[in-house]
Amino acid sequence: MNSPDEPHRDPDLCVITCALTGVLATREQCPGIPYTPAEIGEEARRAYEAGAAAVHIHARNDDGSPTFSPATFARIKEEVRKRCPIILNFSTGTIVDDVSEQCTYIRESTPELAALNAGTMNYAKYSGKRKDFVFDMVFPNTYAKITQLLRTMNESNVKPELECFDTGHTHGLWPLIDMGLLVPPLQYSFVVNVLGGLPGSVEALQLQTKIMHPGSEWEVIAISHGHFRILATALVLGGNIRTGLEDHLYLPSGEMAKSNAELVAVAEQLCRSTGRKPASVEQARAILSLAPG
User: Is 28 exposed, middle or buried (0-12, 13-18, 19+ CB in 10 A)?
Assistant: First the structure.
């Protein structure tokens, strides 16, 4: 509920985010994945023109390998801003404890948003055909690591996007609220279909929305199979949605997407088909409690 002093949030508006790059998939798997800052800038423009209000970005070297270089993130911001006013969300995820480079590019590039992984988890992919794990790792996110990133975001006026892969991640953020490091209204991203985390089900999303801090915004990040079905679930439940080549490589027809814009176009139509409306960039800024552009 909005208090009399709070602006009304149109429940029909939906913020569509596009995750352009990721770190795992390569062009051998999907030729449309952008690598260079200029390619990422072009994909951001296409996503914006297709209906996205925000883009989530991992940086790559020119050969496609991941990088946390502050200079690369700065070039990405420059290339995107040449082309469109879309909201920038930079990833900070890493399996190592040293987040000095992440803190540097948050301070120097000051994207409107930065992803903040909310807890440690098993992170794996299993092949039923091979009866073996494709990869198997621990994704460590201790409170020390989280608070270091969060303090940097707060000092830089960058809003954290709270990526929660399980209910314990969502619930476990309460000490940071109590410490005053997380200041409501909050923005959650509920990630589903990662092995080690939440399944892609209606019940899983409903539980997350009951655990999250009251009055928060949330979106769903649905990885791989069932992607569009879970986006539809979030739309019906009143959440925002994310799509893009980081999350899923295929269109509903089963054809591989040639660009991020093709996935955004499907998400935009899905949004309208459920009676929701894609938010513009300025509307998204208001919904996510960001400063006007």
Answer: exposed
Segment 167-189, tens digit of pLDDT: 999 999 999 999 999 999 999 99
Tokens of 16: 């569509």
- Of residues 230, 219, 271, 227, the one with CA closest to residue 245: 227
User: Hey, what are 131's tokens?
Assistant: 């009866």
Is the CATH number of domain 13-287 3.20.20.70? yes
Answer whether 0.90 is exceeded by the pTM. yes
Are the CB atoms for 99 and 92 separated by under 8 Å? yes
pLDDT digits (tens, 9 = 90+) for 57-77: 999 999 999 999 999 999 999
Q: 122: number of CA atoms within 13 Å, CB side?
A: 11
Average model confidence (pLDDT) across the chain = 96
DSSP state of 60: B
Determine the number of helices (DSSP H) and then strands (DSSP E) in the chain.
Answer: 10, 12
Spell out a b/e string for 35-66, using b for 16 or more CB atoms within 10 Å of the CB, else e. bbbebbbbbbbbbbebbbbbbbbbbbeeebeb
- pLDDT above 80 (res 2): no
265, 50 Cβ separation under 8 angstroms: yes
Domain boundaries along the sequence of the chain: 13-287
